[in-house]
Amino acid sequence: MAKKSWLLKWPALRQLANGDLAGLGDTAMSERTHSLKPRTSTADKIVGSVCPYCGVGCGQKVYVKDGKIMDIEGDYDSPISEGCLCPKGSATMQLVTGTHRGMNVLYRRPYGKRWEKIPLKQAMDMVADRVKQTRDETWEDQHEQGHPLRRTLGIAHLGGATLDNEENYLIKKLFTALGVIQVENQARI
C-alpha cells in the first residue's frame, strides 16, 4: 500500500490509475500547481485604460499594488479588442516602468547646440507662460466692424489618434476656453 501511494505521486501514473489518460483533470496536478495563483491576484485595484500606441483603442487593465503598476493586460470586457493586445500593446508595462524611460524633459534653448535636462515642473511652467504670452499677443476681441470675436489665431492644436472621445472633449473645452479656434485631430486628416 505504501508503495502504491509513493507511485501515485507521479502525475503520469496517477493519470493511468484514475483513467484520466488526457491529463486534463486533478490527476495531472501536483501540490505545487494547486498552490499557484495569478501574479495579479494580489493587486490593490484594477484600473481600466486604453492602449496608447495606435488609433484602434484596445482596452487594457492596469493592476496596481501599493500605488505602483505591477502588470498591464488586455481587457476582456473591451468590445474593441476582447482582451487581445498586439506586441506593442503587450509591452506597455515596459513603456511605463522601464529603466530606459526618460524621467526629465530635454530642452534646447533658442539657437542652442545642446540639449539640457530640466525638471518637468519647470518645463510645464515654460509651456504655460508661452501659451499665455501668445494668447495675449494675438488676442482678437472684436472684428473691425465691432462684431465680437474673442479668439486667438496664434495657437492651434492637433490631437493624436490615440485620444478617446472623453479626452478629445476635454481638450476641445480647454482650447475653446482659451479662445483657440483651430482645433483638429489626426484621425480626421
From TrEMBL:
Cofactor: [4Fe-4S] cluster
Protein keywords: 4Fe-4S, Iron, Iron-sulfur, Metal-binding, Oxidoreductase
Keyword presence, Iron: yes
Entry protein name: 4Fe-4S Mo/W bis-MGD-type domain-containing protein
Stated family: Belongs to the prokaryotic molybdopterin-containing oxidoreductase family.
Main location: other
Residues in 4Fe-4S Mo/W bis-MGD-type domain copies: 44-100
One of the Pfam families matching this protein, by short name: Molybdop_Fe4S4
Location in the cell: Cell envelope
